[in-house]
Design goal:
By secondary structure, the chain is α/β, with parallel strands linked by helices. It contains six helices and 13 strands. Helices cover about 30% and strands about 25% of the residues. The strands form two sheets. Strands 7-6-5-8-9-10-11-12-13 form a nine-stranded mixed sheet. Strands 1, 2, 3 and 4 form a four-stranded mixed sheet that branches. Strand 10 and strand 11 form a beta hairpin.
Length: about 260
């Protein structure tokens, strides 16, 4: 009896392994009849569509439809799609039934940059430069003025000048703060490389030093607005100066 039980477990294990191997072999010989590209994007309008990505694969001569799973070059699919600058992540490719599923995550854009020279571009939440695409309809803060950085593929914010790094930090704060998302519309780099934030309400600007402790400065500004400025006429002020530590200087319009 003591011998029978271990023998039974051994045979059961072998049977399970055989079943798994048969299932894997059958899966490898399964024919792909359809491609399903799922796109995860936080914005309102896709900068790249499923049909465009399928066309990209076709133009590269990658055979998928009508091919056995074992013949599909997943590495070629991954490398081809990854060349699209809007794609942040490609999850493991899988086959369900006779459909090949490709799940893609697109980059989250946080600021729209208009440099002094060259084409406009975007920067995503990870600090990656992304080329302009007319399909992007998101309401993003606009950055312009004394910005010398032009778009370069694979460029990141780490390679940028301090003023643009500060613009990026402001845009990150705006993206995650509902108050600032509604309040800020333009980030202008002036000739002194200071950041002039143009709000959507009032005729004043918010002045910030390049390289400033952005989160702390904007936290102070939010508290100040909630405690007093929100109840006053914003047109009374021409500048809210955030360049100094632990204080905000409000400069009134002449004659008021």
């Amino acid at each position: 009896m003591k011998i029978i039980k271990p023998l039974f477990l051994l045979l059961l294990s072998i049977a399970i392994i055989v079943i798994v191997v048969i299932a894997v072999v059958k899966t490898q010989h399964r024919i792909c009849e359809e491609i399903d590209i799922s796109i995860d994007y936080s914005g309102t309008s896709l900068p790249v569509s499923e049909s465009e990505l399928q066309e990209l694969l076709e133009n590269e001569g990658i055979k998928i439809i009508g091919e056995e799973l074992k013949s599909i070059d997943e590495k070629a699919i991954f490398n081809t799609l990854k060349r699209n600058p809007f794609i942040k992540e490609i999850k493991p490719i899988r086959l369900s039934g006779n459909t090949l599923h490709i799940d893609i995550v697109l980059r989250k854009l946080i600021v729209h940059v208009f440099p002094l020279t060259g084409s406009q571009y975007f920067i995503d939440e990870d600090g990656v430069f992304v080329p302009f695409n007319k399909n992007v309809k998101e309401r993003l803060p606009i950055a312009n003025g004394n910005i010398s950085e032009t778009y370069q593929a694979k460029m990141t914010i780490k390679e940028a000048s301090q003023p643009l790094k500060t613009v990026f930090e402001i845009a990150k704060t705006v993206e995650k703060n509902q108050f600032y998302h509604a309040y800020f519309k333009q980030l202008f780099v002036n000739q002194q490389n200071e950041i002039e934030i143009v709000p959507s309400v009032g005729k004043h600007i918010i002045l910030m030093s390049s390289g400033a402790d952005v989160e702390e400065k904007l936290f102070q500004l939010e508290k100040t607005c909630q405690q007093g400025l929100a109840y006053m006429n914003p047109d009374q002020y021409r500048v809210l100066d955030l360049r100094y530590k632990n204080r905000i200087i409000a400069k009134k319009v002449a004659g008021q």
